[in-house]
Amino acid sequence: MKRLNADIITCRKCPRLVAWREEVAQTKRKAYQDEDYWGKPVPGFGDPDAKIMIVGLAPGAHGSNRTGRMFTGDASGDFLYPALQRAGFANQPFAEHLGDGLQLFDVFITAICRCVPPKNRPYVAEIENCLPWMMAEVNLLTNLEGYVALGRIAFDGIQRMYKMQGIDLPQMDFDHNKFYELGEGLPWLLSSYHPSQQNTLTGRLNEAMFDAIWSRARDLIRKKG
User: Is the pTM value of this prediction over 0.85?
Assistant: First the structure.
């Protein structure tokens, strides 16, 4: 995993994303002017024996692109990590920076795209450039049982990853708390609305709805165990 992460961090496959992530890291947000931004692709992280892969869209411009760790330092993480702690998947309800003591249990967090895209909208070609990194992570997680897709792009990206490998999946439609078996020998897939402020501040996703996802995910791995 360390070798894979080193390769991810040095990736420059997508010129548009390289330019944008570096521009954001140079201009910075006013609140973080005194901080050094990460400004590189963000690798996944978590329990090497993870049974669940949590899949997001991409680093936030002033979250992961600043801190260098998925869902760290922004509002999405502020909603995600308390839920993970309540379900027993994390040791603390916050993720502020590398070295803040965060530990994950049974879960590994990654994303469809490793570089922040302008307006949070990666091109299809950029997604396809990036998905092999997630394929490699999946292959290294030998105890993997299922995916939790945070948002439609993550949900579609997981399907695209298998399509790129020539694997046909059943017909699936995105919605909150929908569960799918992908096929014999493949992980299951559970979908959730993304914990972005666009969803949490509007009430489209609330704490109880999000807790239901992690409770269901916990039950699924306990059932198999």
Answer: yes
